[in-house]
Design goal:
Layout (H helix, E strand, L loop, with lengths): L3 E3 L5 H11 L4 E3 L12 E2 L1 E3 L3 H16 L1 H7 L1 E4 L3 E6 L3 E5 L4 E2 L4 E2 L2 E6 L6 E3 L2 E5 L2 E5 L6 E5 L4 E3 L2 E15 L4 H21 L3 H17 L3
Antiparallel strand pairs: 1-14, 2-4, 3-7, 4-6, 5-16, 6-16, 7-15, 8-9, 10-14, 10-16, 11-16, 12-13, 12-15
Helix pairs in contact: 1-2, 4-5
């Protein structure tokens, strides 16, 4: 799993509230918060700290924490309050890798999350491009959807040539830092839930649930 599309992280009502709050944000140069090696390629606007941004951040974090797919896949220990960034015509973000430790708390960036707030039909360009062993993979999803990907990968935001791209971006420190182990746990979680939905609490479910719990116990940090 490299880029993982998670639909409907924000439902229509939550998306409406987030967009309404976004209208009251104050903006500054995004380069001001970039790592020293990324400042030269970061050309976007970023929402400035304040009560409106804090309310918006709380809504997005609550939605991410309530999303069962993200929780199962990422196994979050800590999550940063999201940055809200805006790209208008001529803006973008060149190739970079996210800092390993982010924020005052020094969160280890295992996974990056982009929550799309703009309808993709309202802007041209602005694709999130992530470099994988198979080449670049891209993401430009409907408003309210999110994409999850490893923070360790080089990535960029293609220049916007028309319209406005608005996103919320955050980083997750997982309880399980190894991506291969997280994938095994995610697969097992999907299997145990499928068994429970189809058959209830059977002996087969109990065995899979035991394996999931014991692997998580073995692999979880701290």
């Amino acid at each position: 799993m490299v880029l993982v599309h998670i639909p409907n992280v924000l439902d229509a009502a939550m998306l409406g509230n987030v967009r309404l709050l976004a209208e009251g944000l104050q903006w500054g140069a995004g380069a001001a918060t970039a790592g020293w090696h990324a400042r030269a390629v970061k050309n976007n606007d970023q929402a400035l700290a304040g009560p409106v941004l804090e309310r918006l951040q709380n809504l997005v974090v609550a939605a991410l924490q309530a999303n069962p797919v993200l929780q199962s896949m990422a196994l979050p220990r800590r999550m940063l309050p999201p940055l809200v960034s805006r790209c208008e015509a001529g803006q973008g973000y060149g190739t970079h890798v996210d800092d390993a430790l982010i924020g005052a708390a020094g969160i280890r960036s295992d996974l990056s999350v982009t929550v799309f707030l703009s309808d993709p039909k309202t802007y041209v360009g602005g694709e999130l491009m992530v470099e994988t062993l198979a080449g670049e993979d891209d993401a430009k999803f409907p408003a309210g959807d999110a994409v999850l990907y490893p923070s360790s990968l080089l990535h960029r935001v293609a220049p916007v040539t028309a319209g406005q791209r608005l996103v919320a971006v955050t980083w997750i420190e997982s309880r399980v830092r190894d991506p291969g182990q997280r994938e095994i746990l995610f697969d097992l979680d999907r299997v145990r839930r499928a068994i429970f939905d189809k058959e209830g609490k059977t002996g087969t479910f109990d065995l899979v649930a035991k394996s999931y719990a014991n692997l998580l116990r073995s692999w979880a940090d701290g």
